[in-house]
Each structure stands twice: as structure tokens, then as C-alpha cells.
Amino acid sequence: MANKIRVAVIGTGQRGPAHARELLGCDEAELALVCDIDEARAKQAAENFNVKYVLDHREVIAREDIDALAIATHTRHHAGVMRDAATAGKPFLVEKPYCESIESGKEICEIAERQGVVAMVGYQSRFTTFAQEMKALAEQIDLVQTNVSLQRGFFNPQYFFPEHYSGILDALSHTMDLALWWTGTLPVEVMAHERCGLFKPDKGAVEFVNITALCEGGQIVCMTGSMAGLQMQNIFQMAGLRGNISAIDRNRIRYVTHRGFNEDKTPIDLKTGEWTGSSNQGTDMWTHFARCVQEGRTDVSPGASLREGLAQVAVSEGAYRSSNEGKAIAIAL
Ligand SMILES: NC(=O)c1ccc[n+]([C@@H]2O[C@H](COP(=O)([O-])OP(=O)(O)OC[C@H]3O[C@@H](n4cnc5c(N)ncnc54)[C@H](O)[C@@H]3O)[C@@H](O)[C@H]2O)c1
Predict the structure, then answer these.
(1) CATH topology of domain 125-279+313-330
(2) Rounded distance, CA 187 to CA 57, Å?
(3) 71, 109, 247, 281: which could form a disulfide with 94 (CB 3.0–4.6 Å)?
(4) CA dist., res. 95 & res. 97, Å (int)
(5) How many angstroms separate the alpha carbon of residue 219 from the centre of ligand 1?
């Protein structure tokens, strides 16, 4: 393998070109090819990034001069491309949400694990210093409760369709992944209330959602999202037996640590602090993934494994069912 891994971007809609741009700034990986079933899009991306294009992802997978794929097709098309890549042993970074159903996601995990394929879900937020600081702090407070919100402005038309990975749930998948990663255990049950079609009655996409997930270790994760949140701040809070952490948006964290409370409510060994920072998440994600590919490392942490991608899909899918069926939904991963 050359020093830089050679990457093909599959799917050149909105997100594929963003990967191509991020690869331009990466010392460990380079864009070598683009692919789209829509020839006009493929051709345009090829011209923009000065590489060749093909129309069939199987042709890309078969090429020995391509070391890895960036799969940026629409979520409903991820599984077919991932199945072919995993079966052929080709490393891939797949966009979030990882897949369109728990069944197909489990199947792909099994193939990739059996084949020893280096595979990662593209949760670039994990590569911010903010997210990594939250993770390090969460490990110190004996975490019990996580509350996160994602308030966004209005979405592009390709995210309006009546499925559990549509609408606000598409973007909220990043926040869910962070909340589950920080919490450090898997979800076992989910309850949710969702509102669909208030802005676009004919589309049925999820526009507002409140989800509660119960995790294996008893932790409770609450996740809220809407696409009516123009200019609203996003809030992250974690409370534990030994401290708490709070952040507004993603550039400032306040934290408190202690060893419990005395009878008179005084915290024992109280420490408080603040943190601010920033980062170059997309390129950092590619640098990390490229190193995993170069070293054949299937443990892609702190990147998201396919199993972690599956956990997020299970929460979204469970939330959709819970809201429609009016009951808690058990999650078996
Ligand atoms: N990480 C992020 O912040 C972020 C941001 C936006 C979108 N996304 C995700 O990226 C993915 C793509 O989103 P988008 O908005 O670009 O979608 P899109 O629908 O605009 O583009 C998808 C492209 O994939 C092509 N395609 C479908 N099947 C194909 C195949 N087998 N081979 C080659 N090309 C194929 C389509 O023709 C289309 O051009 C989605 O999963 C979305 O959730 C992630």
C-alpha cells in the first residue's frame, strides 16, 4: 500500500463531495476516484476534484489500486454497497445513519467481523476535542443520566420521507451517537414521542422528537431534537454520582467532580472547572481511519464501529416504533 491510502467516494450527492474536500487536507489519505449511479453527478464531481469516475460501485471494489471507500450514498442504499465491500474485504467508512434497518445492519456487522474488514461509521463529531473531553470527563463521574438536544433549522428535501431514519432523526443520529458513546454502555429499551408532518403534511418525516433510552448499566439517556430550532442553543448535560458536566453548543464545558455528599449536603472533595476548544473534525476523522487501514486495525475507536452504528440505528428504529405503538420497545443487539 502506498504511503497515503487511495480512497474512492461512492455517492456524489451532497455529502460525498464533503468527503472529497476533507481528503484534500489529509496527509494519510487521498481521493483517487468517484462513483455515482447518476452519471451527471459523477461527472461533475470528477471534474471538480480532478479524478476519474465510474458508475458501478462493484467496479470500484474490484480495483486493487483503491484501498478504501467512503460510502456516501443515501442511507437506504448503504447496505447494498457495504455488503459488497465487506464480502470482498475492502475497508470502508460509511456515512451515518449506518443502515436503514437493524436486520440489514446486523448482517453487515457479521460479514465485516468475519472478514476482518476495517470499517467505521462516519460520526465525525467524535473527532472534536469537545466530544473527546466530554468522554474523558464522563468516565470520572459515575454517570447516571445524560440529556442532549439537537435544535436545527429546516432540512433539505432528501431528508423528508416517512421512515425512522428520516427528518430530524437523520441529524440527531450524531447527537445520539455521542450520548451513547459518552455513556459507554448499550441501549436495552427505548420510549419516544414524535411529531410528523407539521411543516410538510404530505411527507410524514419526523420533525420533532423526544426519546428516552435505558442502557445496560441502568443509565438513562434523554435525546431531544427538532427542525424548528433556528438559532437555538444545543444543550448537553451529564449527571453522575461523582459529579456533573454541562455544555452549551460545542465549545465550552463546565464540570464539577466530587466523591458524593455529606449529610449536610456538602460535596466531598469538590473540584470545578471549565474547558474551551475547537478542532478540524473531518480531516482528523480521515487521518484516523487511514491509519486504521494502513495498520489493518479493526478496533477503530475512538471512531464508531459498525456495532456502535447499529446501536444508534436501534434507538432510532425503536423510537419510531415506540411513538407509533405507544409502548416501550426492547432493544436486542
Ligand atoms: N456526516 C454528516 O454530517 C452528514 C451530512 C449530510 C449527510 N450525511 C449522510 O450522507 C449520506 C448521503 O447524504 P446526501 O445528502 O449526500 O444524499 P444524496 O441523496 O444527495 O446523495 C446520494 C448519492 O448516492 C448516489 N447513489 C445511490 N446508490 C448508489 C450506488 N450504489 N453507487 C453509487 N452511487 C449511488 C445517488 O445517485 C446520489 O447521488 C446519507 O447517509 C446522509 O445521512 C451525513
Answers:
(1) Dihydrodipicolinate Reductase; domain 2 (3.30.360)
(2) 33
(3) 71
(4) 6
(5) 33
Among 55, 95, 121, the mutation site with the greatest number of ligand 1 atoms within 8 A of its Cβ is: 95
Residue whose CB lies within 8 A of the most ligand 1 atoms, among 9, 10, 12, 14, for a mutation test: 14
Residue 101 CB burial class (10 angstroms; 0-12, 13-18, ≥19): middle
Residue-wise DSSP of 171-215: HHHHHHHHHHHHHTS-EEEEEEEEEESSS-TTT--EEEEEEEEEE
Taking the centre of ligand 1 as the mean of its atom positions, its distance from the CA of residue 71, in whole angstroms, is: 8
Query: What pTM was computed for the model?
Result: 0.96
Q: Which residues pair with 224 in a beta bridge?
A: 149, 210
Report the candidate in 22, 255, 55 with the shortest Cα–Cα distance to residue 141: 255
Average pLDDT, stretch 212-224? 97
**Pocket (CB within 6 angstroms of ligand 1):** 10-16, 35-38, 41, 57, 72-75, 77, 81, 95-96, 122, 124, 158, 170
pLDDT tens for each residue of 40-57: 999 999 999 999 999 999
* Boundaries of every domain in the chain: 5-123+282-303, 125-279+313-330
Centre of ligand 1 from the C-alpha of residue 198, in Å: 25
Average pLDDT of the chain is: 96
248 bridge partner residues: 235, 252
Query: Domain 5-123+282-303 belongs to what topology?
Result: Rossmann fold (3.40.50)
Residue whose C-alpha is closest to residue 223's, from 209, 233, 234? 209
Residue nearest to atom 4 of ligand 1 (CA): 15
Helix (H) or strand (E) holding 319: helix 306-325
